[in-house]
Amino acid sequence: MVLRVTDAVTSDPPAPVTFPNSALFTDQYELTMLQASLHSGAAHRRSVFEAFARRLPAGRRYGVVAGTGRLLEALAGFRFDDTQLSFLADRRIVDDTTLAWLADFRFTGSISGYAEGEAYFPHSPILTVESTFAEACILETLILSILNHDSAIAAAASRMTGAAAGRPCIEMGSRRTHEESAVAAARAAIIGGFASTSSLEAGRRYGLSTVGTAAHSFTLLHDSERAAFEAQVAALGRGTSLLVDTYDVEQGVRTAVDVAGPELGAVRLDSGDLVAQARWVRQLLDDLGNHTTKIVVTSDLDEFAIGLLASAPVDSYGVGTSLVTGSGAPTAGMVYKLVSRQDDDGDFVAVAKAATNKASVGGIKRALRRLDEHGTAQAEVVGIGLSPADDGNDRPLMQQFVRDGSLLQGWTGAAAVARATEHHALSMAELPAAVRRLQRGEPVIPTEYEEVSA
Amino acid sequence: MVLRVTDAVTSDPPAPVTFPNSALFTDQYELTMLQASLHSGAAHRRSVFEAFARRLPAGRRYGVVAGTGRLLEALAGFRFDDTQLSFLADRRIVDDTTLAWLADFRFTGSISGYAEGEAYFPHSPILTVESTFAEACILETLILSILNHDSAIAAAASRMTGAAAGRPCIEMGSRRTHEESAVAAARAAIIGGFASTSSLEAGRRYGLSTVGTAAHSFTLLHDSERAAFEAQVAALGRGTSLLVDTYDVEQGVRTAVDVAGPELGAVRLDSGDLVAQARWVRQLLDDLGNHTTKIVVTSDLDEFAIGLLASAPVDSYGVGTSLVTGSGAPTAGMVYKLVSRQDDDGDFVAVAKAATNKASVGGIKRALRRLDEHGTAQAEVVGIGLSPADDGNDRPLMQQFVRDGSLLQGWTGAAAVARATEHHALSMAELPAAVRRLQRGEPVIPTEYEEVSA
To answer: Is B138 in the same domain as B10?
Structure first.
């Protein structure tokens, strides 16, 4: 069964999901180009656009594709209804011919690319859109917004979960980013290996595991720390996590154990020298008989801080700011370029901008990951014109998401997030171990071109 | 006339604006704290929460408040309907008592703070929420998400327009950030002094001026640069802006002038050494008789690049990535803290966390900007407990947005954006000239406390 891209996707999500109109998440020049190309007739030339990154953020060894599912969902809401058309008409942004074309617009092309969760490298052909120029052109801004944001967060998340080496990471950055970015960031964090999120909307929309107990304000609200802990344990049970650093950490731990007893779930540390503190808090908990009480740390953690805490007796990490801001790389730097289009004879012509510092490689791309006999990745092989030759162990990277306007199933909704999470783990396991090094370096595998045809 | 916060605001916006439900843009711990405080009874204690920044981003001399209007609009959608309640119930995130409280929730408190567009400094009391603990607590995540994102973008925008020194700046960063962040970023950019945006949705939602003409793909689509320019001029008129760097800039300029004639609106340069290029392109345009044709530059500009272009004959700047990522400071770092609450006798008690690296100052705050006899700002004066004394020239900083659950008019919709833009210009004009220095430094005025009462 296939769904039209412009139909709501009702299959996967666990809760009702509506797709708000996304047509005006678009730079004005997409529509003025549409108008000019309708005028010249070139709008109808079959065209291939490609989303790729010329480079990874400085020093990063890999990128992570995320947002594909959100993009396919947003495409279902990409249509020009009265609200959108009236705005464009009232402002005279485009002419009547263009308005009429937009009113009838339904995407009829095909979209393929890397599976969500896949690692990527410079010039990996992450998303390929094949349609008329008109149809592919107007999707540029939406495609880049979603892929650039979500991939930036997933890459940061992946580095953090790598540094955490199996200890659960909890996403709690909603308050540090736009309220809708927060939901997308939680989704991307899960794909990057996070265990759970504090964002309720992300939990609802994508079926993610959510967590949270209490903040300092809860302790300050009560007449004493003990009164606050008693209230929390009475309402949330002994398995809850008590925040012990509002006044004095040692006294906080002692009070927490006194109130909740040996079944206390966890204590949370949110300030100070976390490495040293985690050690003596663990010792204190053990001395008090609370061997199963866990230690959760939060407080401006990033992948480096997590790495430094590896030797400390910490059970889980709560990460906020640096996750949702991409840990120094808040956008993935992908671009969306016309790489091939028909000429008047119907032949495809590879095209590329010539400018020195922004050169692109023209032509439709296909890609595979070259693996050695142990299944370890050796190179990203990009074929120009056709798929590169598989030497036997290789893994093809391109998936089909939309075929002739029909959305293929399995790439949207909550199921897609779970699938992307699994796929990311697989993709990482295949890369050389150096991929997990946090120090600045080069992409962990090189990108090689195989020119099959122009 | 007053509107309930929980009613849709229908007065200001130029186009129909709906307020999507925002209740789950909330960290889970807000609701578990609610449950525990309902259980202990402390939920009903009158409380004061304050949003403030402990420090500015490293080296910044001022911050810019933005997002207040969006926040007040989002509050209108902050209610727990069936969708939200079912999710919370199905997941057993809170108990039945808490669900019943949420179902009835309407904000009945008061909100005051700095006007949108105002400059702020460390510990400025940017937003004050006075209500019960329960009502004020559950708004934390939404308040911080919006203020932290929008203020970060407005601050970057303000530095850029300062560096541009009167030349128009155009926001074109939608593709580098989440699609909804992009709309908020365009709005914040306008408040920070930008002239226009490429984002159509921002134009529609907030009545902003939008611009855009063509990308490289449009040139590559056609059989020659000349054919592309002819198509664009035919469709968009001679006043359009032609992108001249797809192949060879000099030839591009000559072809553009040849096609559009002396009325050509502008040429756009998007790569290479922009300073040198702008100089010889200006000379070439003048030599060709195109004295009124303007030069627009784009290509990874930030405030420093804009400053370096001051001596070049550039007419306007298009800014993308670094604007929407806050130019190195993608989040404003504001926190939302309980600073005062009633005790059992009904007396207000100032409260603050004691942890060494995250100390807060307890007590309700009011603030004014101390001005000298020339109207130049000397200090941010924060009164603890009551308003600080006005020495005659001072400007009070606190505005009332919501009183006893009623939204006061003038702070939302398109009108609020225009008002904030004006207010930002006023606020900047009042600060010492050093505020416009881009080099790293200290806040341009100090924050001083006046303790009026505990």
So the answer is: yes
Report the C-alpha dihedral over residues A136, A141, A143, A144, rounded to 10 degrees.
Answer: 130
More confident residue, A13 or B71: B71
Cβ–Cβ below 8 Å for A31 and B248: no
Of A283, A314, A345, the residue that ends a domain is A314
Are residues A442 and A335 part of one domain? yes
Indicate which CATH number applies to the domain containing B309. 3.20.20.70
Residue A181 dihedral angles phi and psi, to the nearest 5°: -60, -35
> Domain check: are A146 and A217 in the same one?
no
To the nearest whole Å, the CA of A443 is away from the closest chain B CA by 22
Predicted TM-score (pTM) of the model is 0.95
Asked if B179 and A37 come within 8 Å (Cβ–Cβ), the reply is no
Domain that holds residue A52: 3-15+23-154+329-451
Q: Between β-strands B294-297 and B316-319, what pairing exists: parallel, antiparallel or unpaired?
A: parallel
pLDDT at B357: 54
Report the amino acid identity of residue B49: F
Give the residue from A181, A200, A238 with the most B CB atoms within 10 Å of its CB, the best one to mutate: A200
Scored b (16 or more CB within 10 A) or e, B238-269 reads eebbbbbbbbebeebbebbbebbeeebbbbbb
**pLDDT tens-digit series, residues A279-307:** 999 999 999 999 999 999 998 999 999 99
Q: What is the pLDDT of residues A97-127, one digit of tens each?
A: 999 999 999 999 999 999 999 999 999 999 9
CATH number at residue B427: 3.20.140.10
What is chain A's mean pLDDT, rounded?
Answer: 93
ipTM of the shown complex:
0.95
Pair (A217, A297) in one structural domain: yes
Question: What's the confidence (pLDDT) of residue A1?
Answer: 30
